[in-house]
Amino acid sequence: MENSEFTVKTKELINNLKSVCAAYGLGNDGNEFKIITQVFLYKFMNDKFGYEVKLIDPKLKNAENWEKEIAKYTDKQYEMLFNKMNPDSAKLKREHYLSNLHNKQNIKEFAKYFDETLREISILNNEIFSVKTVAGVKIQLFDKLSDFVAENRDDFCRAIVNQLINFSFEKVFNQKFDFFSTIFEYLIKDYNKDGGGKYAEYYTPHAVAKIMASILVDKPVNNVSCYDPSAGSGTLLMNLAHAIGENKCSIYSQDISQKSSSMLRLNLILNNLVHSIQNIIQGNTLLKPFHKSGEKLMTFDYIVSNPPFKLDFSEDRNNLDVEQNRDRFFAGIPNIPKKEKDSMAIYLLFIQHILFSLSKNGKAAIVVPTGFLTAQDGIEKVIRQNLIDNGILRGVVSMPGNIFATTSTNVSILFIDKNNKDGNIVLMDASKLGTTIKEGKNKKTQLSQQEEILIVDTFSKNVAIEDFSVVVTYEKIKGKNYNFNAGLYFDLKIRYEEITRVEFNRKISGIHENLEKLFAESKSVEKKIIETLDGLKYDK
Questions:
Q1: For residue 523, pLDDT beyond 80
Q2: Which of 275, 359, 474, 522 is the most buried (most CB within 10 A)?
């Protein structure tokens, strides 16, 4: 099956599952996300199991029906098959197969049987596929999905199974990141809006994630650690892992949102990064960072992050302001706004946490509001000064407006490199690139592939382009009061135009006339103001 045809069929399956949810009163319901993503994952794991056992036993691969052939196995033979499988593979008992669920649809209390099947799969694969919380609680793969339906639960579960049975992933398991990332984006598109959710679960545009990864990974590396302290659905981490090589890195993450952690787990499974699921933590990164080496926080080779810019962190703020956090939050902790607590600049804490979490040769890319680049005082200025004085800034790329569909905040990408001691710092203004399109009620700017390449190549090769990029030293940035705005460093050009004496006199005359008109209008306005003022009377 061609990839494009399979993508169409996969999207059709997702749409059909959503239609089933809508028919049973769950359309746009908060639990629809769990149902859609979990039954999709169950189907993926079911087909992946069949694909892998066929690779182990030629008899299964050559059989007309591999499930009938595997039914002939003794229990001991079946257990031996488990032992030969990849340690990161999902294990299924024969009664867990989708075909078994399909054949048992007529039994009484089918919903209960359906839920029990998923529960048993969760328990069997708990060690590999569970996401942990900071407290050590394991969040299993599957919920009791029929509990989300008010009535007709048996019929609901039958409808789900009937959508899954005539679809197969088996012919696309050799595909790589670019293929599955498209499917993942479509799967979660209604559940991870750019500005939705209490915890600002922003979906980083694929173009932005690719640019960040391409600039960070500028040479082959092996056996490295990658971290995102506000991982969301994992777009940044997946692009980074793909640029490095999925088998050459380990992924670490933390995010306060349970929904985001579930999305990231699904993303890891689809992209052959199951070995890193054990490093996915649900919890408050700033208050209780989980990943440690002994008593100290772990450090990482690569860090990527699109942190929430503003969030009410008032209840936890004072818990951070203690001796053990002074080194981590060296620039200070943002004050709590008196009126709008949810406008607390929490991203400043994430930047400091990232700097504290970088290994001695580490690199990082962080999405920040563009205003961070030019703030004249406060925590922003202290952080920028730290980057320059310690010689670890690699550069900044200011992105086009509306690059995130539902936020008007202009964003830039801050690149940090602890090996950039020589100070070839690239400051780039890419704000004029891209094409603006309408996406629902919102405007969104999209970068073309050529524009993505232009940004990456210009940055990586330290190229200065008029009114687009400049390469500067640490000393020059110090001389500009630690300002990171590219425009401040562009050469000021005065354009000279040769004109005749007649043309010169005509232009001067026109300017003279315009000024006279403006001055006359000004006098008229002044007179009216005085008259109005004189007409005011005191009235008790």
A1: no
A2: 474
- Determine if residue 378 is left, alpha or beta; phi over 0 gives left, psi from -120 to 50 gives alpha, anything else beta: left
What pLDDT shows up at residue 260?
A: 85
Q: Residue 195: CB partners within 8 Å, gap ≥ 6?
A: 202, 404, 406, 407
pLDDT score, position 150: 86
CA–CA separation, 516 and 39 (whole Å): 75
Residue 341: how many other CB atoms lie within 10 Å: 15
The band of 198, judged by pLDDT with boundaries at 50, 70 and 90, is very low
Q: What is the pLDDT of residue 284?
A: 92
Fold of 3-175: Ferritin (1.20.1260)
For the chain, which residues make up each domain, given as ranges? 3-175, 195-489, 497-540
pTM of the model: 0.85
Instruction: Answer yes or no: is pLDDT of 492 > 80.
Output: no
Architecture of 195-489 per CATH?
Answer: 3-Layer(aba) Sandwich (3.40)
Is beta strand 425-429 parallel, antiparallel or unpaired with respect to 469-472? Answer: antiparallel
Q: What is the 3-state secondary structure (H, E, C) of 105-125?
A: CCCCCHHHHHHHHHHHHHHHC
Report whether 404 contacts 202 (CB < 8 A). yes
What is the edge-to-edge ordering of all strands in the sheet holding 393-398? 138-139, 131-133, 280-282, 249-255, 224-228, 300-305, 358-369, 411-417, 393-398, 425-429, 469-472
How many Å separate Cα 299 from the centre of its chain?
21
- Tell me the backbone φ, ψ of residue 167, rounded to 5 degrees: -130, 145
